Amino acid sequence: CNHGHSLSLIHKPAFVFWFVLTFFGLGFMLIAPFSINAQDDSEIEQSLGYQPGFDPDSQVFTAAAKAVYWEKMAKTALSNGDQETANDNYNESLEFINEAIVLDSRSAFLYTRLAELSMTLESYSKAKTAVEIALDLNPSSADAHFLLGRMKYLREQDRKGALEEFRKAAESDP
Question: CA-CA distance, 137 to 131, in Å (whole number)?
């Protein structure tokens, strides 16, 4: 018995909010995997910086995914003020990126990731070498041009060179 309360559960704002959130959240979870799987394989391959045979079950993909995981863990440690753990995690990420590069030395994407991690760890000469290799492998890599622009601006105080790299990045990925 409701003892005179005629307001049903469905009219309570908290329930409505929960229902809408759950309904749309579940809808997204049901639809998203299909839209991701429908993505053209060539787009994925291009994001790795080369065309032939990208295999998400490969050791390269596994190593790159582990590198991303450890980089995210490093960022979490930094946000918690734990510089030592962050450095350890960045170095772990670096090991996995290097492992992926040993397995696939043709990926501009992997060399760009190596350059970004090297910059984070303040190993600028290693970062510059890695980004230059990335651009040799894929001269139209917007990420590599942008990163080289950052290096030129921040490390070399070469504003003109940085602007040129930023322009190339914008032209590569409008």
Answer: 10
